[in-house]
Amino acid sequence: MKPLLVFIRKEAFHILRDRRTLIILLGMPAVLVLLFGFAISNEIREAGFAVLDQARNEPSRQLTDRFRASPYFTMQEGVQTQAAMEAAFRKGSLKLALVIPPGYGEPPVSLQLVTDATDPNTATTLSNYASAIIRQEWAGRATGQQASALVEVKPLMLYNRELKSVFLFVPGVMTVILMLVSAMMTSIAITREKELGTMEVLLVSPLPPALIIVGKVIPYILLALANTGVILWLGTAVFDMPMRGSYLLLWASALLFVGTALSLGILISTRTSSQQVAMLFSLMVLMLPTILLSGFIFPIASMPLPLQVISNAIPAKWFIIILKDIMLKGGGLSLIWQESLILLGMTTFFIALSVRSFKTRLA
Fold first, then answer.
1. What is the pLDDT of residues 41-91, one digit of tens each?
2. Residues 6 or more apart whose Cβ sits within 8 Å of residue 295
3. Which residues pair with 98 in a beta bridge?
4. Rounded to an integer, what distance in angstroms lies between the CA atom of residue 215 and that of residue 270?
5. For residues 299 and 305, what is the distance between their CA atoms, to the nearest angstrom?
6. For an engineered disulfide with 235, which of 48, 241, 262, 270 has Cβ 3.0 to 4.6 Å away?
7. How far is CA 212 from CA 88, 189, 348, in A?
8. How far apart are CA 137 and CA 145, in angstroms?
């Protein structure tokens, strides 16, 4: 019994000495509870909303004020024409628009709800919210009639008329796979050298640290691009995923995101001392935020403000926006240049940190 207690004590001291692993093991449950508790929510608030009011009378203003008072929508000013509404949808600042026809006020009336259906779940939820507000507005006027007999709501789902969920999951799965291959696999690249005892070979190598890092990541770049091709083929050939933009621009964007993910993986590998810690850290810092905070499964608009701010630091968020803009909206470089610059800035920053950390380790 005493040898067992001694062994247990030794293992306990070993865990306590490894502070990084201890922080991960104790911190991961708390992080998971907070992420799942706040991120997993079907309720959407403060979604971009606009009214294209062609009636401009008292009933239309009353309906607009009811939408303006709703916590689910944030009124976007300046959308006064059809062209401005389409431009706002393409830019992504608008999630739903209400088109009020001339002569609105005398039943029966017909209203159109235009929704950005690149995320079909969000589009359906917002459309239901708006329909409920319209029914509430007309419920007081229904004297002996149902409100549905007085007003007709015609939904128009932009970019995804049939609300196919695959239009959401193909960009999301591509992002997760690229992050998995590029970041998690490369995060153990340098730590593997340390554990296998081959770091000495690198220490005496005439190659500078930058070239050593490049040599390590090139195979993963090729593997990630091969996975991109497979996912694109399956999405378009099997699931009829549209490809309305440029293939060249899509591949260039994928290469940029792969570079961002690789730089993150290498940075983690230079900061950790074992493959186990590197994998755990990658899972906690990269994979979970990629799935939960990128807008892949759960809309960012439904999250608390602190998580919305944190999501801006998640590279996957910007890549998913790029994929949707190219594949579903048919956008060009003029539509995705801001997201591309953000990914380029992240890549440059993480590569600089990786090279600096690698030099410090070698010293």
1. 566 777 889 998 888 888 889 888 888 888 888 888 878 888 888 888 888
2. 119, 311, 317, 320, 321
3. 51, 113
4. 15
5. 13
6. 241
7. 45, 11, 17
8. 14
Q: Which DSSP symbol is given to 272?
A: -
Q: Are 95 and 49 in contact (CB under 8 A)?
A: yes
Helix axes 315-327, 333-362, angle to 10 degrees: 150
Q: Answer for the pair 320, 175: CB distance below 8 angstroms, yes or no.
A: yes
Structural domains of the chain sorted by starting position, each given as residue range(s) with its CATH number in brackets: 47-158 (3.40.1710.10), 165-362 (no CATH)
Edge-to-edge, what's the strand order for the sheet holding 109-116? 73-75, 47-53, 96-100, 109-116, 151-158
Phi/psi-derived region of residue 257, left when phi > 0, alpha when psi is between -120 and 50, beta in every other case: alpha
Pair 98, 51: CB distance under 8 Å: yes
Torsion, Cα 202 204 210 213, to 10 degrees, reads: -10
Q: Please state whether beta strands 109-116 and 96-100 pair in parallel, antiparallel, or not at all (unpaired).
A: antiparallel
CB 326 within 8 A of CB 254: no
Tokens, residue 340: 């591309």
